[in-house]
Amino acid sequence: MKRSGERVIEYGLAFSGAITVLTTVGIIWVLVSESWGFFSEIGLSDFLFDTEWTPLFTQKHYGILPLLSGTLLTTTIALITALPLGIVIAVYLSEYANKKFRKIIKPALEILAAVPTVVYGFFALTVVTPFLQDFIPGLGTFNALSAGIVMGIMIIPIISSLSEDALYAVPKSLREASYGMGATKFQTSFRVVVPAASSGILVSIILGIARAIGETMIVAIAAGQQPTLTFDPREAVETITAYIVQVSLGDVQHDSMEYKTIFAAGITLFILTFLLNSISFWIKKKYQEKYE
Amino acid sequence: MSNVSYNRNIDSIFKYLGISCTLFGIVMLLIFIGNIVTDGVQRIDWSFLTNLPSRKAENAGILTAWTGTAWILGLTSIFSIPIGVAAGIYLQEYGMKNRLARIVELNIANLAGVPSIIYGLLGLEIFVRVMNFGGSLLAGSLTLSLLILPVIIVATREALRAVPNSLREASYGMGATKWQTIWYQILPAASGGVVTGIILALSRAVGETAPLIVIGALAYVPFVAKSPMDEFTVLPIQIFNWVSRPQPEFLTNGAAAIIILLLLTFIMNGIAVYLRNKWQKKISW
Question: Whole-model pTM?
Answer without folding.
Answer: 0.91
